[in-house]
Amino acid sequence: MSEEKTGTLEEIRSRIDEVDQQMKELFLQRMELSDEVAELKAKNGGAVYQPGREKAMLDRLAVSVEPRFQESYIRFLKGILAISKDYQNEKLKKMKN
Fold this sequence. Notes:
The protein has helices at 9-44, 51-62, 67-96. The chain has 97 residues and is an all-alpha fold. α1 (9-44) packs across α3. It is elongated, with a radius of gyration of 17 Å.
């Protein structure tokens, strides 16, 4: 992340808007993949919540994050995981009905 750290408030907010747009696109891609996972779990079985996989993912991703952002990044990931699990649980529930 070698973005320049100077600029006007408007310039910085513009860069934030660009990042937010990229994050939205990545979030939607992730949710599409969560949808596919739910489909496979409906066919093959398997729990939505897999604590071992979740812990391994958090550990693997957080290790390379700057210490000053690490706790926030873990909270960010946990939020995404919670949304994904909720989505999958709802989808599986609807598929059973």
